[in-house]
Design a protein that fits this description.
It is built from 13 helices and no strands. The longest helix has 28 residues, at 236-263. Helix 2 crosses helix 4 (66-90), helix 3 runs antiparallel to helix 4 (66-90) and helix 9 runs antiparallel to helix 13. With 264 residues, the protein is mainly alpha-helical.
Length: 264
Amino acid sequence: RPSANILVGAAAVEDDDSFRVRLLVLLDSSRFDSLVGIVIFCSMICMVFETNTKAACTGQEDCRAEWLTGANSMFQVLFSIECAVRIFAYRWNFFLSRWNVFDMLLVILGFVDLIISEISSSGNVLRSFRIARLLRVSRVLSFFPEMYLMLRGFVGTFKTMFWGMVMIAGFLFVWSVLTVEVIGPIEGIDYGTNDWCQESFTSVQMCMLMFFQTVFAVDSWGACATPIIKVEWWSVIIFGGALVTMQLGLTNLLLSVIMERASQ
């Protein structure tokens, strides 16, 4: 946001508008930020009730409670007033801040959501606009320097996380091809009632899913590996190699790189 201290001086020099100066001081105060944060928190609580109500009556066109509709309208009015006051106080400087522009876009999306909810009952369209309202939570981050710093660090690691996912996919692909080639032809393995393990070694795609589930999600690693190792002891080289390289090696390497990027 534009600094109110700077804008206050500019406003006093330009037109000596004392009312606007008082608004600038108010908008830049921690009390006002706390008040806006409380309103956002209350709107999120209403969104929880709205989501639960919608989930409980799946299949019906519109089963929202009337009080939720009224609450959403009230919050939309409050956010609209706040945006209008900021535009009045900051004038053109309002658009110099990405947070202010972001707030204005959220207000516009809120009006679009209210209008569409009145003229249409299309679940997919309404769901998209309601999910967009979750972005308002990010406004709270701008009020607290520590949270904003953590957010900047998290956003700064997006590129690293993307290439990390590419590397994970590469490791999964290599180990899955090797496993399907070597483990797939083995017969006489008793998986009990676990049909998923039998299916996991029939294709590279299913094997990649199995490794992701067992190695990265740490979900029942021995369910598929142990029956095979009991029959063919040497298969521990494949399963153990995949576990060590991907879980102990790759994930810790990615974690260290992500932490380094976040600290920059």
